[in-house]
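Technical annex B. To support the medicinal chemistry partners, we prepared a structural model of the target in complex with flavin mononucleotide, based solely on the information shown next.
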Amino acid sequence: MRRRTAEEVNFKKPAITVCGINGSPQKTGLCSRLLKRVLDGSQEYGAQARLIHLIDHEDTLFRLSHIKTPPKTIRTLLDQIRADADCLVLATPVHWFGMSTLMKCFIDHLSYLEYDKPGSNRFELEGKVVSFVATADEDGGLKTVLDMVGPLSHMGAIIPPYATYFHNRQMAKKSEDEWMNDPEFVGRVTVQVAESIKDISDWGRSRTRPRR
Ligand SMILES: Cc1cc2nc3c(=O)[nH]c(=O)nc-3n(C[C@H](O)[C@H](O)[C@H](O)COP(=O)(O)O)c2cc1C
């Protein structure tokens, strides 16, 4: 039987679930191809993977005027991520030494996961495992993955070891192959971390920080 592609999957518990977010305007470009390899690695490790192309939400993603109540399709997407995804993989091409506008808008919309509950003092991404991919032709890969790490770490996400992967198209294949783990490894280590923390539901924030 043909294995379903990541675009066709609906999550079933109890496997670890990984949601790949493609921030490239291209659905079949370099960024998406490397993201799929990360998801393949996670599936080889027993996870279920789903792939979301942000370009499919282009019309609504850029509507940021009511950040506490995103447009309905974005809200649905964020609700699914909150309920179903143990892990996220955020992937973006480098656009002018930073993440794509699609990815920036997506990260801005993640604010909904804090504002959604009256009186809540935490993001609902707390404890989710998040890995990162950036692709570039020449320069900006490291800066771009770190630009994504900052807000996600602030939101309580857990970043696995070696999970800030970036790929420079102009780098010689020999050095590209030898200096960083492959994308499949990023998928595997993401699931490994999620497996190891799945029984932790309280990260202690309520005990260490006063409610706002
Ligand atoms: C608007 C724009 C800006 C870009 N800026 C950079 C850049 O600052 N540094 C770089 O190395 N590549 C840059 N690129 C090249 C892309 O990063 C590269 O082609 C992309 O990662 C390929 O992924 P994709 O096929 O999924 O789009 C830029 C491309 C576009 C369209």
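Notes passed to the chemistry partners:
Strands lie at 17-22, 48-53, 87-93, 129-136, 164-168.
The CA atoms of residues 129 and 194 lie 6 Å apart.
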